[in-house]
Amino acid sequence: MLDLSSLTDPIPLARRLIQAPSVTPKDAGALDVLSEALEALGFVCQRFKFEEVDNLYARLGSAAPVFCFAGHTDVVPAGDDAGWSRGPFEAEIADDVLWGRGASDMKGAIAAMVAGVARHLQSQGAPAGSIAFLITGDEEGPAVNGTKKLLKAITDKGEKLDHCLVGEPTNPHHLGDTIKVGRRGSLNGVITVTGQQGHVAYPEKAENPIPVLIDLLNRLTTRTLDEGAPHFQPSNLEVTTIDVGNAPHNVIPARASAKFNIRFNTAQSGDDLKQWIREEAAAAENGTFCEIDLDLTVTGDAFLTKTGPFTSLLRDAVKDHTGREPALTTGGGTSDARFIKDYCPVAEFGLVGETMHQVDERVPVSDVTGLAAIYADVLDRYFKTFP
Question: In the structure, what pLDDT confidence band is assigned to residue 333 with cuts at 50, 70 and 90?
């Protein structure tokens, strides 16, 4: 039977979560496992389903401030099961290491969150404000029917979050290396240039789209976007594929396309980058008989949570438990923090991510229990800092 004392140890819950094969967007019972644990601690749980994606919002308490833990129970596919040393969904513990898909990203962290709350309640009693959980099943997928819609739904119901900690695996090598206080923005672009197919011996009767595509890519890749921004590395544009699909040597193709991605810092905005790309496309198209079509999608703008009492208490808690002074960084890919930052200050701290998304994903048991102690300390400090 689940109760306060049994939930202070994160490992049994982590194993149960890993044993639910919740490959995005399937839930496979993972949120049922989590809801059962949270309800045992006194949380009121609400499920929100958007299309095929199940999501959970849970809250303990009715007063402000509201401290929110956020994360996801969906995982990437296991890949070749035969390549795993231990079953990807068996949650085996061997040599004090927890194995399985989601161990580091991020079912281990979710279990540590629950254990951190249980330890806080055991030592401090009911929180001075409220504790919430914002958990999606769509972070590893398109991220369309998860956190973004869940935030709007709970806001429409009158919920207001004051601060949020996301449990993504932020640490590159050791627990305590890194707290993420922001993320770069991301822009995906697809360029399609349409010309006129023809015989290579009669170029005047055709319009080759390839030189136009090359011209546009050259315009985009030769510009230095910026020299960086506080806490951010320089923005970068990377061409990820160029496709023509033209096998014959004697045919000028009708179309040529390319894909690219821009990871950008706070010196840029997604809208400004899109406008620049459109202007360069118009310049490359000018004087030709080709047409350039652009498909530009900003999946998240860059953001930075300013240093202050919230980041200080996170850093102090991590340092006191690990002996490491965590760097405040913004590197890496995107996360659901890009949606949460529109509602409240947000930071990220979780487990070591060396094996996330890999075959044989695993995490030391001591890291999961250590993270639970840090999360409990964060709660202790939070309700003293923000009474």
Answer: confident
Taking only the tens place, the pLDDT of each residue in 52-70 is: 999 999 999 999 999 999 9
CA triplet 38, 41, 45: central angle to 5 degrees?
A: 40
Is 346 in contact with 147 (CB distance < 8 Å)?
A: no
- The whole-angstrom distance between residue 220's C-alpha and the CA centroid of its chain comes to 27
Q: Which of 139, 207, 336, 367 is catalytic?
A: 139
The verdict on whether 139 is a catalytic residue reads yes
Is residue 94 a contact partner of residue 161, using CB atoms and an 8 Å limit?
A: no
Catalytically annotated residue among 74, 162, 301, 336: 74
